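hiii, so i know i said id send this last week but things got crazy w the move. better late than never?? heres the sequnce for the chain we talked about at the cafe, plus the structure i predicted for it. fair warning i was half asleep when i ran it
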Amino acid sequence: PSVARKKVSVGFDGGQLSSDAGVLLLRGVEKQLGLAERLASCIREWRKPEAIVHPLAEMLRLRMFAIASGYEDADDCDFLRHDPIFKMAVGHAPESGDPLCSQPTMSRLENALSRTGVARLMAAMVEQFCASYRRAPRSITLDIDDTLDTVHGHQQLSFFNAHYDERCFLPIHIDEGTSGKPVAMVLREGKTPSGTEVRTILKHVVKRIRGHWPKVHILVRGDNHYARHEAMAWCEAQGVDYMFGFA
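okay and structure toks below
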């Protein structure tokens, strides 16, 4: 599809070059899902309207596309902001369009979010999951697990984890077990989650899902990290089935 009212064509004769042409496919997917706009609506705008150059949705698109392409640091924005493919993916013309946001601007966005704002973003992901179904399913399976996210410095909340022998974060991922669709992700410190934390996360996710589908049957699956008394007692009280491993 066209970008900034300009026709898109492919050529092999040099000119402006980029090694990340696949980002345009991600643009098509994001445009269909409307993910950036959904997430942007969860963030309270802190900037003066007359001083805004880069809208929140545009910044989120750049960040998502950059991470998906292997550019995980906000620092990378300083050269990606001029990359013709990334400019097109965000909605700017590759040559005449204005540069995208720089590292300082992206870092201010990442540091502007409060704990409440992060919770809103997680809720928006659950809403995105529910919106992906045309009609309410009879049952869903929520697979919950944490995954190693190694750090290379002394970032806030990064801990040394003896199991992985790494300094890391251990974000929690919840996916739907039958379809494989992502449901929620929670960035968190690099330690095993407590029973109270597991219960709190399940409580918020299940509440959101049942807000859309009151009668859906829910099965939660997890390894022994999640076989906690608090989590199991809550599931039983809420009519949620569970299948946890035991050490």
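btw The mean pLDDT is 93. thought thatd interest u
miss u guys!!
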